[in-house]
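hiii so um. not sure if this is the right channel but i have a protein structure encoded as tokens and i wanna go backwards to a sequence. like what aa goes where. can anyone help
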């Protein structure tokens, strides 16, 4: 009998793992179980009238050599280069994003900027002289040091508060390290004079995109897995997992309503970590300690609600993304799929999608679609994008597991959980949801490859082999 491997989840990580396994050994039996009706996970696209929108626009960009090679082999001719164009709505007007020092000075006025520069210098001096602690554990402490107290309050803190719906004092500095690629004020100024090198890029100027959106990339990955003999079983919601020599995984077939059971030698899981842990806790394996149970309970995600409007105007703005740090709009970001690629919409209309984040169960979470549409529309009118009379249709789409929350205790919790997971040598837990990581598709594709390679390289304990690389995965940066 050939070795059998079950992969839980058909996002780009699960698909990449299947791809690499079958590429290395075509005799393997590889089966993916996916709860949705299509593969892709977060890298899927929505249809809104005559328009297509990714679930959050997915530009294709990577600095990882193995993923670069893979993407070029997979989609080379279909990858089109797009020049980035994004703006920020700041104090009643638009500035380019990421902000440029000269434009920010013009927009905010020389006096404000001189004050901000002085506050940066004083803060740095205080840090150097030891008069101010240089603790860097929270988002707030790291970014105050990087930008100075005034610029931090003006440019950085409002957006963080709006996206995370919590005080930046309670957010771990790792969010800034992973997501805020602008660095700090000194780096912004240095960038004016010294070109950035690959590997240290702070912002993407050009990226790849595919006609029809990110789901086209997923379709190619799916075709590659299936043509090599892999099975992708859709509408299978995994709900139990047991290890007893081999692995037994149970899933509900959402089409037939029947319970199904699958056996395998090894499992690669890319489903959300809290869900996997619940299944392991109630399986026949080692019982979790109270600390592990508590660590699992305290892992939370930010949800993202997409509010999409088809507007009867050929042009709304040239930008692809618009950022809204201020309290004058309920949304924090908007994107216009047509400005990523003309195939995403019709010529005489424009689709504008607003992103509104919230916590599970909070005030926004409970809002009806109608109320979300009305609130987003008020914001759109306020910033002058379009008027109610321009709207031809609207749609709300909710994504519950969007951003893992890195609060101050998250590292300790993940370490506790990782020790527990080492009890399961034939289970590799990977991907954005599995490792509770802020990452991009390229990172998930790379982790999918590495989990497949670890499984094939180590006979005794493939999971331990894979987890040796976790620190590297945690340090991946999202080049904004
Ligand atoms: C708003 C937003 C914008 C983004 N923009 C970009 C971008 O511009 N560029 C970029 O490269 N990346 C971007 N990303 C990140 C990118 O989407 C992710 O890093 C990547 O898609 C994660 O892939 P994954 O396979 O690790 O996880 P996922 O895509 O989350 O896949 C997990 C899969 O598991 C399935 N699953 C869950 N539970 C079960 C269960 N019980 N049984 C069976 N299946 C289950 C899910 O349905 C899903 O298909 C963005 C993400 C977001 C949220």
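sure thing!! here u go:
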């Amino acid at each position: 009998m050939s070795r059998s491997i079950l992969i839980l989840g058909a996002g780009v990580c699960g698909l990449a793992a299947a791809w690499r396994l079958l590429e290395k050994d075509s005799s393997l039996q590889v089966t993916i179980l996916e709860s949705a009706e299509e593969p892709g996970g977060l890298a899927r696209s929505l249809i809104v009238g005559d328009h297509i929108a990714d679930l959050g626009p997915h530009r294709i960009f990577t600095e990882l050599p193995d993923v670069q090679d893979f993407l070029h082999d997979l989609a080379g001719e279909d990858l089109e280069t797009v020049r980035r164009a994004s703006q920020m709505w700041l104090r009643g007007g638009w500035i380019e994003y990421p902000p440029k020092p000269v434009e920010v000075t013009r927009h905010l006025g020389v006096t404000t900027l001189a004050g901000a520069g002085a506050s940066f210098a004083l803060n740095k001096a205080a840090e150097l002289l030891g008069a101010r602690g240089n603790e860097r554990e929270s988002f707030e402490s790291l970014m105050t040091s990087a930008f100075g107290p005034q610029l931090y309050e003006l440019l950085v803190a409002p957006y963080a508060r709006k996206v995370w719906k919590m005080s930046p004092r309670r957010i771990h500095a790792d969010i800034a390290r992973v997501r805020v690629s602008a660095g700090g004020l000194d780096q912004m100024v240095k960038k004016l004079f010294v070109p950035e090198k690959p590997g240290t890029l702070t912002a993407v100027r050009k990226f790849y995109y595919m006609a029809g959106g990110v789901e086209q990339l997923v379709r190619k990955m799916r075709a590659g897995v299936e043509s090599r003999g892999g099975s992708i079983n859709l509408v299978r919601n995994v709900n139990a997992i047991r290890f007893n020599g081999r692995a037994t995984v149970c899933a509900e077939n959402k089409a037939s309503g029947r319970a199904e059971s699958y056996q395998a030698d090894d499992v690669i899981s890319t489903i959300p970590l809290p869900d996997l842990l619940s299944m392991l806790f109630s399986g026949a394996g080692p019982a979790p300690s109270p600390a592990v149970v508590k660590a699992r309970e305290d892992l939370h995600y930010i949800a993202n609600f997409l509010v999409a409007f088809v507007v009867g105007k050929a042009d709304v703005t040239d930008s692809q993304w618009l950022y809204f740090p201020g309290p004058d709009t309920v949304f924090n970001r908007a994107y216009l799929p047509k400005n990523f690629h003309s195939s995403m919409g019709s010529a005489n209309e424009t689709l504008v999608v607003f992103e509104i984040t919230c916590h599970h169960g909070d005030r926004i979470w409970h809002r009806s679609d109608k109320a979300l549409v009305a609130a987003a529309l008020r914001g759109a009118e306020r910033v002058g994008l379009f008027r109610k009379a321009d709207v031809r249709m609207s749609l709300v789409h909710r994504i519950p597991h969007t951003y893992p929350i890195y609060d101050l205790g998250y590292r300790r919790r993940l370490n506790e959980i990782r020790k527990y997971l080492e009890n399961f040598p034939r289970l590799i837990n990977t991907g954005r949801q599995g490792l509770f990581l802020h990452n991009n598709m390229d990172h998930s594709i790379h982790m999918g490859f590495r989990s497949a390679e670890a499984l094939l390289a180590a006979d005794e304990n493939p999971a331990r082999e894979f987890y040796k690389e976790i620190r590297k995965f945690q340090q991946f940066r999202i080049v904004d």
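oh and The longest helix spans residues 110-128.
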